[in-house]
Amino acid sequence: MSDPIWSLWWAWGAAALILGILEMLVPGFVFLGFAIGALAVSLLLLNTGLTLGLPALLLIFAVLSLVAWLVLRRIFALPKGQVKRFHDDING
């Protein structure tokens, strides 16, 4: 019997690629944390050969995506107390 699609490493890799492409189309780091989480699950399945169920994989994906989002937020956030201001209007 073949493995379900969610337990295949390349399915998670494809999801990471799609989420990465969506991140390029939608501004604001919306999908980047999810793409990193899906890539991490893909690498976990590829390197360990584990066969986990969907709930376990979704839990791992959610935790890794949250960690990636928190790290990205810390890296790309403005320094504390600083506000982003625009002095020039590109339309004017």
From TrEMBL:
Name this polypeptide is given: NfeD-like C-terminal domain-containing protein
Entry's transmembrane regions: 6-22, 29-46, 52-72
Keyword check for Transmembrane helix: yes
Source species, domain of life: Bacteria
This protein's UniProt keywords: Membrane, Transmembrane, Transmembrane helix
